[in-house]
Amino acid sequence: MKVPFKRLRSALGEIVISFVQFFFTRTPLFLTRFISDSLFLILYPFLYRIPSLRRQLFGNLRIAFGDQLTKSETRRLCRSFLKSLFRMPGEILYYGHPKNHDKLKRDITISGREHLEEALKEGRGVIGLGSHMVDFMLLTVRLAQSDMPFIVPTKAPRNKFLKEKYSEWWSISGVKYIDVDDRERARDDILSSLKDNMLVYLIADERKKRDGISVPFFGKPALTAKGPAVLSLTTGAPIIPIYINHEDGCVIDILPRIEYEPTGDEKEDIYQITAKVNKSIEDYIRKYPDQWIWLNPRWKM
């Protein structure tokens, strides 16, 4: 009896994923990075020549920075970004394992905690504004290991095995999450979490094809999630930008709240708050341009 190719491919994939998870959670960090960097050096010459990858990377950088970057600067930025991207899976698996949580707390520092603590004193919860910096998943694990009342809405993979692995990883990492596949239930859970004075962390820099509104990002129109603005207007919860970078050691930056006084015109308020959200994310990316995930078709309308 022949085993269907799809089933065989799925079984092999499960074996590989299980092995990678087992290996990187038990391998010293310096060796994990060495393996990731070596793999990057081997594959980079081939990746760089993939037309679709080049178009996406260089196209996004051209939209964002125009003529501000030379060709050599653009190439160096792409190379640095892709190298960081190769390191990301191993570091997430390493730091996410409970036996390495003490190292996680030591290696990833939190700056600006006072901004979050002041906002939580208001008792309306906090909307944490996130961005797809390369280390954004490490940020969620690190916050989960702090004493902050933290939860993150996220979308699990559709594949059953991957979904189980995903849930297992969140569980051992200590991250509490809301599955956004069920939109109505997710909305209720988010509102309930804010009511319980929790930090709800929303990644808000993806192209939002469904329900997105056109708001400038790097000066160009981009379909943007209006969720942070709507939630803030509905609940009164402040929006606090929380980003991560590894420029000089790994640091989580908690920035001052996004200030806005509602006018009563709901549509205009949503637009203006969302514009401030995009500007906050844009400003951080400009500081660390090689650490944002440039593979998202952000400006596709």
UniProtKB/TrEMBL annotation:
Pfam families named in the record: Lip_A_acyltrans
Transmembrane segments: 30-48
InterPro entries listed in its UniProt record: LipA_acyltrans (IPR004960)
GO biological process terms, semicolon-separated: glycolipid biosynthetic process
Keyword terms, alphabetized: Acyltransferase, Cell inner membrane, Cell membrane, Membrane, Transferase, Transmembrane, Transmembrane helix
Location in or out of the cell: Cell inner membrane
Molecular function (Gene Ontology), one example: acyltransferase activity
CDD domains, A to Z: LPLAT_LABLAT-like (cd07984)
Cellular component terms (Gene Ontology): plasma membrane
Protein name: Lysophospholipid acyltransferase family protein
Organism of this sequence: Candidatus Zymogenus saltonus
Species lineage: Bacteria, Deltaproteobacteria, Candidatus Zymogenia, Candidatus Zymogeniales, Candidatus Zymogenaceae
